[in-house]
Amino acid sequence: DQQVKQNSPSLSVQEGRISILNCDYTNSMFDYFLWYKKYPAEGPTFLISISSIKDKNEDGRFTVFLNKSAKHLSLHIVPSQPGDSAVYFCAASGGGTGNQFYFGTGTSLTVIP
Amino acid sequence: GAVVSQHPSRVICKSGTSVKIECRSLDFQATTMFWYRQFPKQSLMLMATSNEGSKATYEQGVEKDKFLINHASLTLSTLTVTSAHPEDSSFYICSASGQYNSPLHFGNGTRLTVT
């Protein structure tokens, strides 16, 4: 049972525009959410996180939005750069799951120069 | 920031041999470490969760006798692929977590090729 879902396997965006990556979850007990970036043949790199007490967290060009009622989070990258081209995974944890993390299936972002 | 070191990055072995992969947390104590496997063009598949000083918890369908996990200290976990076969060829990634609600940090992965 996939508790964290990324329904868009791929996304293409022009350089300089905004990239919006979406993620949905089913477990209302999750209280900590993260985004990771992954290049081929490398481990994922932590990008940004948000706890359930917030609805927005910013770090430079990256902003994560959390809508708890909709069980939805999104990652905004603005402006998008060619170096942002990678696979992005969202993850969720907490709320009785112990220290377990649940990952989405990833969205491959291509930023076109 | 937090760093997780995974070694080796690449290994080629013959069918029937065993391979050990190490995962170390370099600047934090990892109470929990996770082992993932990634197939081409697929997501990360959690294989097992290991907690320091206790037996690993394996996901359904993962053979615990084939994929031996040892988490002997708060900074080291090892995955041993025993009697490797070509179908075990894959990209294995470890990750480590410290405190509750802190990010999970990943190693750079190990590309295993079994010939």
Describe the overall structure.
The complex is a heterodimer of chains A (113) and B (115). Chain A is an all-beta fold and 113 residues long. Chain A is built from no helices and eleven strands. In chain A, strands 2, 4, 5, 9, 10 and 11 form a six-stranded mixed beta sheet that branches. The radius of gyration of chain A is 13 Å and the shape is globular. The termini of chain A are far apart. In chain A, 36% of the residues are buried. With 115 residues, chain B is mostly beta strands. In chain B, strands 2, 4, 5, 6, 9, 10 and 11 form a seven-stranded mixed beta sheet that branches. Chain B has a four-stranded antiparallel beta sheet with strand order 1-3-8-7, with no helix packed on it. In chain B, a hairpin with a 7-residue loop joins strand 9 and strand 10 (105-106). Chain A binds chain B through residues 31-32, 34, 36, 41-46, 49, 51, 89, 91, 93-94, 98-101, 103-106, and chain B through 4, 6, 31-32, 34, 42-44, 46, 49, 91, 93, 95, 97, 100-101, 103-109, 111.
Q: What is the structural class of chain B? A: mainly beta
Distance between the termini of chain A: 38 Å
The ordered H/E elements of chain A are EEEEEEEEEEE
What is the residue-mean pLDDT of chain B, rounded to a whole number?
90
Structural class assignment of chain A? mainly beta
Specify the biggest β-sheet of chain A. 6 strands, mixed
Report helical residue fraction of chain B: under 10%
Briefly summarize what is shown:
Chain A is mainly β and 113 residues long. Chain A has strands at residues 4-5, 10-14, 19-25, 32-38, 45-51, 56-59, 62-67, 72-77, 86-93, 101-103, 107-112. Chain B is an all-beta fold and 115 residues long.
Topology:
The complex is a heterodimer of chains A (113) and B (115).
Chain A: E1 4-5, E2 10-14, E3 19-25, E4 32-38, E5 45-51, E6 56-59, E7 62-67, E8 72-77, E9 86-93, E10 101-103, E11 107-112
Parallel strand pairs in A: 2-11
Antiparallel strand pairs in A: 1-3, 3-8, 4-5, 4-9, 6-7, 7-8, 9-10, 9-11
Chain B: E1 4-7, E2 10-13, E3 19-25, E4 32-38, E5 44-51, E6 57-58, E7 67-73, E8 76-81, E9 90-97, E10 105-106, E11 110-114
Parallel strand pairs in B: 2-11
Antiparallel strand pairs in B: 1-3, 3-8, 4-5, 4-9, 5-6, 7-8, 9-10, 9-11
